[in-house]
Amino acid sequence: MKKKNTDKDNLKNSYLLCQRFLAESKNYILFSIYLFTFAVVFGIFLNTTPEMTGKILDYLKQIVAQFNGLNLPQTILYLFWNNLSVCIITIFSGVLLCIIPFIIGLSNGFVLGFVAKHAVSLDGLTVIWRLFPHGIFELPAIIISLGLSFKLGVEIFTRREIRHNLREIFRIIFLIIVPLLFIAAIIEGSLIFLFR
Asked: Cα angle at 148 between 144 and 149, to 5 degrees?
């Protein structure tokens, strides 16, 4: 009983440390929200040429084709590992003067805006409800990853608390990003399987 309480206290303390570190990183996370939102709006309102639209749709078809032949658990695991690897690459690519996370934020936001606009033009506004359920878990993970990436990049450049930042970033990956992405993968995988 005592061990259970100790484990629960340790987990609670770990989440409190995550919360504190995210609060310390709020300016970087806010910047990520602005960047991503700008890219989404740009993706919605940009009038793409037929050639550009065709290239983006071909790219999206290639992504969808990767799910052919996968059962539900395989689809969920594929989505989870793919999204987790993108988040981890995003976070640690911040050390390269924050250029890669900036590009990742812009490109992912743009594609999301483009897909939302294209889906609505084909199936109406109700299609948004297919994107929304997993997005409420996946988008915070992406935004947090971008924010941590910018924080890591700026603070490694200024040599501030590198070891502390890395320790807290790993804690956030395991306790916040992994659960968010796993829930998102279950929802998204189920929807892909359902509407196949």
From this structure: 115
Q: Give the list of residues 6+ apart from residue 54 with CB closer than 8 angstroms, or none.
A: none
Higher pLDDT, 139 or 165: 139
CB 122 within 8 A of CB 53: no
- Asked if residues 173 and 91 have their Cβ atoms less than 8 Å apart, the reply is yes
Q: How far are the Cα atoms of 43, 59, 115 from residue 56, in angstroms, in the given order?
A: 11, 5, 9
Q: Is residue 5 predicted with pLDDT exceeding 80?
A: no
Q: Which two tokens stand for residue 106?
A: 């812009």
Report the amino acid identity of residue 123.
D
User: How would you write 110-135 as a 3-class SS string?
Assistant: HHHHHHHHHHHHHHCHHHHHHHHHHH
Q: Is the pTM of the predicted complex or chain greater than 0.70?
A: yes
Neighbours of 35 (CB within 10 A): 20
Q: CB of 101 within 8 A of CB of 150?
A: yes
